[in-house]
Amino acid sequence: MKLLNNLLKLLEQKTATIGVIGMGYVGLPLAIRCSEEFHRVIGFDILQERVQAINSANSYIEHISASSIATAREKGLEASYDFSRFSECDAVILCVPTPLNKHREPDLSYILSTMEACSSFFRPGQVISLESTTYPGTTEEILRPLIENKGLIVGEDVFLIYSPEREDPGNQMFSTQRIPKVVGGSTVQCLKVGLALYSKVVDEVVPVSSTQIAEMTKLLENIHRAVNIGLVNEMKIVADKMGIDIYEVIDAAATKPFGFTPYYPGPGIGGHCIPIDPFYLTWKAREYGVHTRFIELAGEVNSAMPLWVVDKITEALNRHQKAVNGSRILILGVAYKKNVDDMRESPSLELMNRLLERGAHIEYSDPHVAKLPKFRKYTFQLNSIDLTPTELASFDAIVLATAHDAFDYALIEKHGMLIIDARGYYKNSSPKIVKA
């Protein structure tokens, strides 16, 4: 009880040292927010350039300003790649990636390597929180044994919680502080500590009865989106065959004040969560003899969207007596959603790759992504081009893949020879605009 009470006191008085592991789209804004409340925050990352950027008050994520990092530095935020400093922290929050492997199975290697790097520096009186999206049971089946193998008792010596990250990059309405936080603990004492920690940095904390409930909550949130996007993507294909504008249909249906939530189709789904998280539950469900047909079907529909758009491009070029092979095609937007620089799992990248495989000459323009970085799956070496009348007129086809607000859509329509609209931006009917 002494360790519990001491930790609760540190959290209540905001004198605890907070460690956030993983300074990406989730970890960095969380570390900045923690610095506003606690005296000392250490942001850990294995990437030296991120550590140096934070300590120099520079931003590497577009929607996070350098000034906000500078303010956090003044309040006590520092970054480090020295995991021995884990022992300095009273609370440690893990915000590391949880991708899928090539067989679409959960890849927990980042969690495992992080825990291995930190395990020598566990000490009594710490709270460890996992925020990375994962399958129900990960906290109890993976993290808890790793901690207890060090001779520490969870709930007495160390306090273990799961609190799923909720971030919407670029959404100004919902900051880290304003998004309600679900928290589940390994024990009642763990939950008590988790609530004490997160109640200082978010406006609303939602306690649940176990870490498994919290883990499943995150999956349900993202599966809900994935399934509904899969449904509307399938509806788009049916409507296209019938010569019906699916976007007008959705807008009309959205006038119903109850029982309907509008979701919009596109060239696929992107971001770290929606394309990946459903398969975490699919994989775990097999252990219980359950085949998640609904979830997998939505995944198949959404994964097929880039190819469907490529086929629409092919048909449109054919009507102009051109082939994809040899055509110059401009992709508008490589981020996975509008007005951000986040390219994680962006369908634009798969779209570009498939067009290249068919022999197209590809360029792209994105006001938020000046140069394509290295990817595990793709080998692009391209820089964003400026949209001038001459450039626009030089392409055989222009594909609107991500509808950034910064694009001059009137200029694009005026000078583009053929526009493939995969986002439903253009409402007018024009021979040069093809809905995809």
Main β sheet profile: 8 strands, mixed
Q: Quick one: how many beta strands?
A: 13
* Known CATH architecture of the largest domain: 3-Layer(aba) Sandwich
Question: Would you tell me the overall average pLDDT?
Answer: 95
User: What is the total number of structural domains?
Assistant: 2
Residue runs with pLDDT of under 50 for 5 or more positions: none
CATH class of the largest domain: Alpha Beta
The global form is: elongated
Find the structural class using helix and strand composition. Answer: alpha/beta
Order the strands across the largest sheet as they lie in space: 3-2-1-4-5-6-7-8
Using only C-alpha atoms, the radius of gyration works out to: 24 Å
Structure explained in plain terms:
The chain is built from 15 helices and 13 strands. With 436 residues, the protein is α/β, with parallel strands linked by helices. The chain folds into two domains: 2-211, NAD(P)-binding Rossmann-like Domain (Rossmann fold, 3-Layer(aba) Sandwich); 266-435, NAD(P)-binding Rossmann-like Domain (Rossmann fold, 3-Layer(aba) Sandwich). Strands 3-2-1-4-5-6-7-8 form an eight-stranded mixed beta sheet, with helices on both faces. The chain has a five-stranded parallel beta sheet with strand order 10-9-11-12-13, covered by helices on one side. α13 (347-357) links the parallel β9 and β10. α8 crosses α11. The model has no long low-confidence stretch (mean pLDDT 95).
